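Example 103.
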Amino acid sequence: MGIIFVKDREGNSHKLEAEAGSTIMEIIRDAGLEIEAACGGCCACATCHVYVEENWLSKLKTRCEEEILMLDQAFHVANTSRLCCQLEFDEQINGIVLTLAPD
Ligand code: FES
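Predicted structure in complex with FE2/S2 (inorganic) cluster:
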């Protein structure tokens, strides 16, 4: 069991319990925060877009081709952008800090 920190679109920070093997999208969604995740996590919608705090980026596996293609079509993309259904929680990223991208 670990934790992640998520800032919502109103600027409020949330500390969420995270279990290894879950994706970050599932953790955020199951905590009841506003994340659409329309495709259910199969990298086909970009509505699970988050910004990852810079110093955590190198701890994540790199974007796969599908994620790159989806982010190409998303709005407000930054170099810290990730689709969080593609990020599986594990010990390496315990304590990661994320911000939900605008709708
Ligand atoms: S939930 Fe659709 S791309 Fe992540």
